[in-house]
Each structure stands twice: as C-alpha cells, then as structure tokens.
C-alpha cells in the first residue's frame, strides 16, 4: 500500500520539475534543514511569481505529524491541479492573479520518511533526546502556550523549549518575514473536521465568524465532490489539550488559521479513501486561496455594530454601521444554524443601505445573520461581522418549552462496562457505537414532561445533540447513527445495558445518519414529523420520554472502533449548559369556547329603524336594508391573557328569495355614531368577516358562518381590552337594482338568532418587568465573574435568563452565550475569561415565555485575574480505564486473600 504514496525524494523531484517547466508560476526554496539533513521545501505559486510576496497569501502546511500523509499528498496533487488548469480555469487564474499560495507539503520530512520505511504510526520528528528516546511533537513546539514536559517518550512531547526544533524555527522565520499571509491551513488526519484556532477562552472572538465561515464554505466545496460533511469544532477547548500548536501561533500573529483533519485513518486505502480525500479537498483549498485577499489590507473595513433593532413573529429589522474610504455595498446572509456556509444560496440581500428588513420568517425559530461589505470597484469583500443570533417571536397562541435532561438522566451504557455504566450518567460524554474495549454502546437521554400541560398540542419539536469527537469513528463510510423513542414503561434502571438494548422501539426519528454525514462540532438535529409529534404528545401522560442514541453494533475484521462521542454539558469535560442535549417544543393548548348572544339587534332601513329584528336586503324602492348587531365581550377572561384563536358569527335565514339575481350578503365590523340610515351609509368601515353568502348559497343551506380572519381577531382582542362591544353590519349587494328582496335572519330571543362564537386560550401577552440592580464582580473564591440581580415581583414570574456578548449589549436572549436560566438571583460565569471586557444581560420570563427588556451591564477589570487550569489532564476514557484497572486490582487482591 505504501508504494502508492509519494516519497519525500519524489516530492522534491516533482517540485523541481514543476518549477523548471513553469518558472513564472512556481518558485521553490528550502526554508531550513532537519536534524537528519533533509531540506524543508516551500513552494510559492502565483501568476507572475516574482511579485508573489506583494500579494495577500494563503499558507499551506502539511504532514507536521509524520504519520498523517494526507498533507503531502494533497499538496503535490493540488500543485498538479494548478499546472493543469490555471490557464483554462478563470476562477483559478483570477485567484492566482490576486493572491499567492505558499505551500510546505511536508513540514516533518525526517518523521515522514521514518513512518514510510519503518514505523507507520510514528508521529514526531527524529530528534535524539539523549535518553534513548527520539522525537518531538512539532505541533506542540510553537511558543503560544508552550508546555514543558519531562516525558520524552510521550507522543505529544513538546521539546525542551519552544522552537527548539529546526522544522518549527524554519516555518516561524518564514511566517514572521511574510506579513502578507492572511490565511493558514494546516492539514492533518483524522476526523473529517476543521479545528479553527482559538485563544483558550470560552469567548467569542471578532474573527470567530470569519474562522467558522472559512471552514463552513470550504466544507461546502468538499461536500459538492463526495457528499461528505466536515465538522467545525470551535467550541470550548479543553485547556490542556493543545499547547504550542502552529495553528495558534499563526492566529496570534493575526492570521486566520485552521487545522483540517482529513479522513478516518492516517494512512488509508489509497485508491479509495486517500484519493477521495484529495479530490474533495482540492476545491476547498482553491476557495481558501480566493479568500486570502478578503482578509488583507486591500479589503474594506469590517461592518460594525450589527444588531437587530426589532424582532417580530415573522420579520426582523437589521441595522449596522460602516466606515470605509471605498464605495461599498453590503451582502446580508441568513443561515438556519451556526457554522453554516454563507454562499449565494443563502445571501438574502445586496444593498447600499445600512439596514435590511427580513420578512416571511417562521415564528419561534432561530436564525443566524452576518454581513460583509463589498468594494464596488474591485469586488473585494470585507471580513464578516460576528454572527447575530436571534429567535423570532412566537405566534400569539404559541408556547415554547426547552427540555434539558437531569444529570442522572443522560449517559451511556456499554456492553462490556456494566460495572461502570451507572458512573457514565451526568459525566462528560455519550459514547455511541462499538469498540473492542467497551463493546456495543448506546446513549440514553430521558426528559421529564411533567411541566407540559395535559392539554398540550405540539406544533413542532426538535431534538438537538452536539457531536464533540469522531476520532474513534475510524472506518470511512461505515455505520449509521439514529435516535429512537423507546418504551419507558419497560425501563426500571436507566443505567442497565440489558434493559436499554432490549427495550421496545416505539419510533425512530427521521432518517438514520451515515458515518460520513455525522460531523463533530456542529449540532445534529432531528425535527419530529407529524407521527413523531403525536407519539411525543402521548408520552406526556406518562410524564417522561426516553431517547436511545445508537450506532453500529458490529465491526468489520481488522478494525477496533467505530464510535462517536457526544457532549452532554455535564462533568469536568462537558462544555456547559448550552451544549446539553435538548428537546425544544413549540405547542399550543386546547381552546375554550364561548357562545355569545347578541346584546342588541336592529334592522336599519331608509324609512325606519326596528329594534329586535335582524333583516337585510332591498326594500320596495330598491334601497338597501342593513342589519346591525352588537356583542358584549365582558364574559371573556382578562384581556391581557386572552388570545382569540378562532371566531365566527353564525346566521340562519328564515326565508328564501325567489329572485334569480345574484344578491349577496356580507358582514363587516364597523362603528356607528347613531343608529340612523345616513350614519350607516357614511359609516367607518373596519373589515369584512369571511366571504359573502349568495342567494344561491342560502337556498342550498340557510345557516352560514362568517369567519374572523387574523386581522379581525386582533380587532376583537383590542375591543376586549378597551371594554367595548363588537358592532357588526349585515350588508346586501347586487350588481343590478332589486326590489322587495329581504332576508330575515331571526330576531331577538328566537331559536336561531345570530350568535358570536369565540374560541380562546389564556396566555400572557406582555413581558414581565425587567430585572433590576444587576451587578457584576469577581468571586474571589473561584476567580470567576459573579452576577447578581433582583427579579421582578410578579405572580407570572418563571425565571431569569442570562447571556453575555463581547461585542454589543445583548438585545434578545439568543444574542450571545447562555450562562443561566432559572429562578435564582445570581450566577457565575463558569467558562468566561474575566480579563476580557464584555456585556452581560439578564431577561425575566414567564411561562410562554415572553422575555422582558434586558438589564445590562458592561463588565471590565483593571486587574488581571489568573486563570486556573487542570494540570492533570485525563479524558473520560482514561478515567474509565483507571477505574476499571483499580476494580480489577481489588478483585485480584480479594481472591488472593481468600486463597
């Protein structure tokens, strides 16, 4: 298999040949020499390459880890792609005209050759450590958060000091002397995921959206080739997981940097897996090359103060500021989820204005927006604004409830870890799939449904789960993952593998997700279908629903693992409340019905006004005769909590007209100064109810309903709030004159007199008062930011919702990072860096929930607070292995004593 891969010597020969044949396009140089004397080759590619250093540039580094051969393979084949297509592909030609590509196909030549010739899975370089061990992990040898270690045998040994290795010194010197580099891609394997750079904070960065969008748009290019979905993992990094990496060094110098983890094995089957990996990543590298200029000094300034001025049920009013010397227009993007591509497909506006109204949105739905400026003359685009996150208002009859599992109700059960399964609950992760050590593993999540009303009618439901790691899914395109509702009545012990594995499946949600579609770092969501919503609704009576997450249950020969790891938000390595698996439900409730008799009935003709009768049509002179009726609304509950879901007036005709002419009758809402004919003619019209009823319709059926549309229902609620009756006019129309054609609609007190039917639910309409006395300070015991506030004194108070935002005051509960939701009057910012200035907002909410205007504070320190780190880094798998070994030791000791 290894013979199919290119060697380092063959790489240099290929590069020399390419430069010889294309001297105006390609330049080759050595930027350093390894411990074993190999040159570290860097190739520069650009149209008119003599001026390459004057253009914005993309830096590509590959195979910094010896066993990760994708870097050198992709680099050499991308160069061949450039040679073959740059004259005929205008997209590629323009990219090379405006930008430069710097490529280091292999940053670890010694280790790579050692991996080829001797030990396939060698990772480090070949430094002689002087103690019988060899090698430094070059991706732990950069200076940003370099961590010194004495364990030279470790695979992640970072060396005696930062930049102790000739390979890292070489790339450092090159980067430091080339300020034109704006984007850096570091190619690794494995995982099919982008790891954008971070600053070791659980904080948003101004470039955070740029990093996510660069990765998302590259992932979109990959998907076009093979359909494979790459993840993007830029959440809370484990503090001690990555120290001294090249990615963070580049980012620290102002370069957008990301690691690209390709494939599921370091050295896969070449003809199938490696070739696919190379082919799908070529257009992604080209996209990054095109984008380099957008992050250079040639680009327009970033749009600032991007905000939602108004959030409605079906529309959002966006606004922003921009100062630039160039003439710019703006591209506005809307995506349904974070880390989603921003392309022409979801660009919703191109405008010269500094505002945009986005309309025809869905109620109660999350949306994500970003804006960038575009220079009209050059077409160069600015960086993106930080993503604006929001949720549209609910419809007037809707409630929303987001369920999170308790610690004891979320975990996984392993076939071979029966003694540890109870400890898996509320502890860091769900491991789902199969491997040799754990056996078959199933995720388990139970949700308490007791807070949902018994008359709940579910309109939408969505289950969301955050995949945090797929490194142990080692087989390309193997296995499927799914979520099933299992019969909760069969489960007495949620931590029992046997009970969970053998439980009856009531329904599997949607489609299964194949391995190459299940990403890490991007929320995976299952929208409930109509059938699934009905099943969920049925579970309300039992008070809980249990979901089982499952993957493959067997392994092909020669493989040891196909397992996905999902975050649960709990435990040392969980990423907090906003990474917990959640079930979001939008529902309404059963309507109550009120049948109202008319408070008054009148027939209004030119010659007379008759009380107690309701007639309309045409008199013997051909003049119109109007019916007038009114209804008092005081039988409805509190107008601040009454939502009309349906309303109609029911009329029944006593008689039929003999004429064949097209006579029609309508009902309109109106207000009259006096019950006089002239006042009717000059009345103020408000709106018609439903559609007209014809003479023909009345012959077919004497009874008809005139429906209130949404606008009329709003008027009805307004009248109720003003303690006013509803006035209605029954109006006749005909295209030609008619005489003696009057319908009698039944008078006062008769069996079939008119009635107004109103269906309604009780639901609070207005938000609660905002919290007060919001303060932020440092909790000296923990070093974290402590927030305190006073909640409003209101019987409808349910809780307070706390978010933070680095860039502007949060204007809605989704406009930032969620920190807390509940009844308390304080919280701690568990993950934020207190040394970074930020805004905190606290919203009060009721059971709808309606959210109040926020109480907001800007928190900033004049001192530096030390950030404590967990020096004894241990993964959950490491911990389980330690506990298992401890258990085995105790059992062996007990056996020895008994014998």
TrEMBL record:
<feature type="domain" description="Fibronectin type-III">
    <location>
        <begin position="302"/>
        <end position="395"/>
    </location>
</feature>
<keyword id="KW-0645">Protease</keyword>
<keyword id="KW-0121">Carboxypeptidase</keyword>
<dbReference type="GO" id="GO:0005615">
    <property type="term" value="C:extracellular space"/>
</dbReference>
<keyword id="KW-0479">Metal-binding</keyword>
<protein>
    <recommendedName>
        <fullName>carboxypeptidase T</fullName>
        <ecNumber>3.4.17.18</ecNumber>
    </recommendedName>
</protein>
<keyword id="KW-0862">Zinc</keyword>
<dbReference type="InterPro" id="IPR057246">
    <property type="entry name" value="CARBOXYPEPT_ZN_1"/>
</dbReference>
<dbReference type="Pfam" id="PF00246">
    <property type="entry name" value="Peptidase_M14"/>
</dbReference>
<feature type="domain" description="Peptidase M14">
    <location>
        <begin position="4"/>
        <end position="292"/>
    </location>
</feature>
<keyword id="KW-0378">Hydrolase</keyword>
<feature type="region of interest" description="Disordered">
    <location>
        <begin position="868"/>
        <end position="899"/>
    </location>
</feature>
<dbReference type="GO" id="GO:0008270">
    <property type="term" value="F:zinc ion binding"/>
</dbReference>
<dbReference type="InterPro" id="IPR013783">
    <property type="entry name" value="Ig-like_fold"/>
</dbReference>
<dbReference type="InterPro" id="IPR036116">
    <property type="entry name" value="FN3_sf"/>
</dbReference>
<feature type="compositionally biased region" description="Acidic residues">
    <location>
        <begin position="868"/>
        <end position="881"/>
    </location>
</feature>
<comment type="similarity">
    <text>Belongs to the peptidase M14 family.</text>
</comment>
<keyword id="KW-0732">Signal</keyword>
<dbReference type="InterPro" id="IPR003961">
    <property type="entry name" value="FN3_dom"/>
</dbReference>
<dbReference type="InterPro" id="IPR000834">
    <property type="entry name" value="Peptidase_M14"/>
</dbReference>
<dbReference type="GO" id="GO:0006508">
    <property type="term" value="P:proteolysis"/>
</dbReference>
<dbReference type="GO" id="GO:0004181">
    <property type="term" value="F:metallocarboxypeptidase activity"/>
</dbReference>
<keyword id="KW-0482">Metalloprotease</keyword>
